[in-house]
Specification:
By secondary structure, this protein is α/β, with parallel strands linked by helices. The protein contains 16 helices and 25 strands. The strands form 6 sheets. A 7-stranded mixed sheet has the order 15-13-16-18-25-24-23. Strands 2-9-1-10-11-12 form a 6-stranded parallel sheet, sandwiched between helices. β7 and β8 form a beta hairpin. α1 runs parallel beside α2, α1 crosses α15 and α6 runs parallel beside α8. The longest helix is centred in the first third of the chain and has 22 residues.
Length: about 525
């Protein structure tokens, strides 16, 4: 198949909209990124605004370098003066949603902040931290949603325009549903983006939930006529059963809307992508004999849960999400309890206590059971949280490590490479293992001075970043991505941890094959013409 428009600028935009959250937008966007990249096209993902506590650390070009491919006459005032775009020593690091990080890898592109210019990280039911172009923005965090949208739109539009100037195809992901008519006037992530980019839109729905045709028709019907014209196809996702039973609904839907149903995608239980917004499906746990259960505490504001995805691929490891003491009853000393990252550490720690999980975790540790805290989970394992700046909240810790955490206004966002010192007990296999990952945290953690005076000292196993209790069964680390490191998995699980598992590239190619099987290749080509 040939693509005569390869190299044409600005890029054509293909946009994936959904009838609901969870319809399959992220999955399909990732699959299309790899599919079009496989055709020899230069591809980038884009999502104007993502609301997620799952984030990755990526390149955040400076204002001078962010205008990479725009000629001087195309400089966008929202992002500064034009300049040559090369990532250099002056570039910062910033945060984007994990979904866009993986979409960039699927597109064979370097993940960077323009691919998700606005990231909202929920800290409470009615409040989110605003991350604009990778950096926390205090002013916009304080603004109400409707007041914020117009102020951030210039930066969003500039980021998209730049990506279009540099690529053949930009695959755009929407958010939620484009037919939330109470939000339509302030929309900066769905149809406003589609109109700005003249995007060719696909509308995907989760047929497994039921009501798929009503969702498709209702979404289409609630859009203004000019926005309906941007929808080029309906997609039925997560289908189980006999496809012949769908008739005559797709034909009737096309008669009503003029929009064809262009693909029916079967249920993908084991697609291999980390989950964007929810915990993993229990039906996807390991087959065969289980030798280790990893019980991850599912806080209300859990963050970076995607980093546990590799554990699902280790034979004999069962990944379990827990919300009550009953969920951890029966764990063996060789099993783990993991306190993951949190976007609201003090609040989530209060939730842990309210559920009675604090006692269950303490009992597991007292019996020599392995406990791991990552970032916010590390902070919870200490003696206390001190927040004089109003960042997160104060509170007593779980007391499993003699540490204290002070929350600072400045946020640590960086990639990190380190090596474990000698560890004891359950975590001894990590001794001397080099590790790499990323840090995203406001808290700064150190030895509790009064406890040190009494001889109760945490063993620092990576300076300023990881500590262990004297018994060796409790380990706290600031490093996200630890369990994505093959060397760590091999150290902890031996040959089982080193067993061949699908690489990310293999996962992305599998998604692209599904697209090839479910879509007509002529349709996907015509979307770009």
């Amino acid at each position: 198949m040939t693509f005569p428009y390869q190299g044409r600028r600005p890029a054509v935009c293909v946009m994936v909209l959904g009838t609901t959250s969870g319809a399959g937008k992220s999955w399909l966007t990732t699959a299309l990124c790899r599919y079009y990249s496989n055709q020899g096209l230069k591809v980038a993902p884009f999502k104007a605004q993502n609301m997620s506590n799952n984030a990755r650390v990526v390149v955040a070009p400076t204002l001078a370098t962010a205008c990479a491919a725009l000629p001087p006459e195309g400089a966008h005032p929202a992002l500064g003066r034009p300049g040559g775009v090369v990532a250099g020593a002056d570039d910062l690091l910033g945060e984007i949603g994990s979904a866009q990080y993986f979409q960039a890898l699927a597109a064979r592109a370097t993940p960077e902040v323009r691919m998700n210019p606005l990231l909202l990280k929920p800290e409470a039911d009615t409040h989110s931290q605003v991350v604009l172009l990778g950096q926390v923005h205090a002013e916009f965090t304080a603004l109400p949603w409707r007041g914020r949208s117009e102020k951030v739109w210039p930066q969003i539009a500039a980021a998209l325009d730049q990506l279009r100037a540099e690529n053949d195809v930009v695959v755009i992901e929407g958010a939620g549903s484009p037919a939330e008519i109470n939000l339509h006037a302030s929309d900066i992530v769905n149809m406003r983006v589609a109109r700005h980019a003249s995007a060719r839109c696909l509308l995907v729905t989760d047929i497994d939930r039921g009501g798929a045709f009503a969702h498709l028709y209702g979404t289409w019907a609630l859009l203004p006529e000019d926005e309906r014209a941007l929808i080029h196809g309906f997609v039925l996702n997560k289908f189980r059963g006999d496809a012949s039973l769908l008739a005559p609904a797709p034909q009737q839907l096309q008669a009503l809307t003029g929009v064809p149903t262009v693909a029916t995608i079967p249920m993908q239980w084991h697609h291999g992508l980390p989950e964007e917004d929810g915990v993993f499906d229990d039906r996807s746990t390991t087959a065969g004999a289980v030798h280790t259960t990893v019980a991850v505490v599912a806080f209300p504001r859990i963050s970076n849960l995607d980093e546990f995805q590799p554990l699902k691929n280790v034979p004999g490891v069962r990944l379990l999400w827990v919300r009550s003491p009953a969920d951890v009853a029966g764990l063996k000393a060789t099993d783990w309890i993991v306190l993951p990252g949190s976007k609201a550490t003090a609040s989530d720690l209060a939730w842990v206590r309210a559920q009675g999980l604090d006692r269950a975790i303490a009992a597991h540790a007292a019996q020599g059971g392995a406990v791991l805290g990552v970032c916010g989970g590390l902070q919870m394992l200490g003696e206390g949280l001190i927040d004089l700046a109003g960042i997160d909240g104060n509170g007593p810790g779980l007391g499993l490590l003699p540490l204290v955490t002070v929350f600072e206004p400045a946020k640590t966002v960086r990639r990190t490479t380190a090596r474990f010192a000698d560890l004891q007990g359950a975590w001894a296999p990590l001794s001397g293992v080099p590790v790499s990952g990323y840090e995203i945290h406001h808290g700064q953690t150190a030895q509790h001075p009064a406890m040190a005076a009494k001889g109760d000292i945490a063993r620092g196993v990576i300076p300023g970043m990881a500590w262990q209790n004297p018994a060796g069964n409790v380990l706290g680390v600031y490093l996200h991505g630890l369990l994505e490191d093959p060397a760590v998995l091999q150290a902890l699980f031996g040959q089982e941890g080193a067993a061949p598992v699908p690489t990310l590239n293999a996962v992305f190619d599998g998604l692209a094959r599904t697209v090839e099987e479910c879509f007509d290749a002529h349709f996907l080509r015509e979307l770009l013409i």
